[in-house]
């Protein structure tokens, strides 16, 4: 079956408009709600509420009715009737899942944990101490957040990798209390591999709740789930909108939507590798996959490789659908135009499949994660390398960055003076305090200098 992926020829104009339009079109912003999900909304709420209205209603009910509302929505939305004592996964269940897991699987989780820890510890912000003037000491101190909530998706697939890419950065930052929420499904709270991974990572608090009701429970606190300081992790539209809704009550990381990759390829790139990389993000379905190249004929060779591989892969149909709705093969005028268009698109993942990728990196300023060279598929970052795979999507890489251990730290500035430092800053403090009419501010300086005999 021939693949109907969009082809764009940018060789004759600067194509900025075309890429901006593509960005809008290929940015589902997580707004992909299936017909079944829409039907569920009507069944639960009795009317076709918008996802935003659904989320506001769920969050308000959880804030006022607590666990009872969480259990009610879990029954209606997930078709699972949990009793209050069944929400938290017991230590015995975590132990049993761990005992039952294949030793090679646990060894893989442990090895990846080490990779993630090594990277995340290396990039941790360090405290700063300076003495810019005699008698004045300034500093910046980082301390880990006390308690965070981690959303792990589990509606359509199981994601032990997302557990690694969220929990381990928090551990690297020194967060002591980590509460994982995951829907009560065979891909989530009843998934033995996921539970075994939790136990392997030392996560002891896992709650079988998902969607907006889980986010609200973490934000407001309900019986059995204490309120957290920050909520991180990806999820479907309901999770994303709920995180936005509770922001301010708690902090959140970002709104991570459907996956996307931009691939910049020169003549050194193998069309089969390119096709495999485009399909690997498309198989998330939805996922946007875009090729930018200035090599004549490469687009045709990639199209042929895509058709060949889609026919052989088990998720080929899902990936085909995604490539046809959210994919594009783009002919550029030259390397410079490919770089400009990539920056404009601001992809979650950028794969530079060229002979000398380091040469292009300084100009590639806008991307969540950059994969360098023909031997570095995005799947390495998704699963094992070390940086988190929770990255900014839908063009938000313009201003947002991927999740890291630093997102679990808070900053406090430190200021200390001795008598000399106090006297040095006093005239400027007095002047501004006078301008603002805040006499007590001025007096708090004057009283000290008076005592020191330096009025
Ligand atoms: N960016 C990343 O790092 C990353 C990693 C893994 C997964 N993902 C993405 O996260 C998403 C996860 O989606 P998922 O399907 O597994 O869902 P999910 O686990 O995030 O959410 C499922 C929950 O949504 C709620 N829900 C479903 N339909 C609803 C409705 N009509 N009204 C109210 N609530 C409803 C239910 O409570 C259900 O438990 C996918 O798009 C996947 O590609 C992203
Ligand atoms: N590519 C996804 C978003 O970056 C992460 C993921 C999980 N599993 C495989 N891939
Ligand atoms: Zn992926």
Automatic annotation (TrEMBL):
Zn(2+) binds at residues 281, 284, 382, 441. The active site is at residues 348-349. It comes from the Bacteria. It is an enzyme of class 1 (oxidoreductase). GO terms for molecular function: histidinol dehydrogenase activity. Its cofactor is Zn(2+). Pathway: Amino-acid biosynthesis; L-histidine biosynthesis; L-histidine from 5-phospho-alpha-D-ribose 1-diphosphate: step 9/9. The keyword Acetylation does not apply. Binds 1 zinc ion per subunit. It catalyses: L-histidinol + 2 NAD(+) + H2O = L-histidine + 2 NADH + 3 H(+). Its EC number is 1.1.1.23. Keywords: Amino-acid biosynthesis, Histidine biosynthesis, Metal-binding, NAD, Oxidoreductase, Zinc. InterPro entries: Ald_DH/histidinol_DH, Histidinol_DH_CS, Histidinol_DH_monofunct, Hstdl_DH. Substrate binds at residues 259, 281, 284, 349, 382, 436, 441. Transmembrane segments: none annotated. Belongs to the histidinol dehydrogenase family. Catalyzes the sequential NAD-dependent oxidations of L-histidinol to L-histidinaldehyde and then to L-histidine. This is Histidinol dehydrogenase. The gene is hisD.
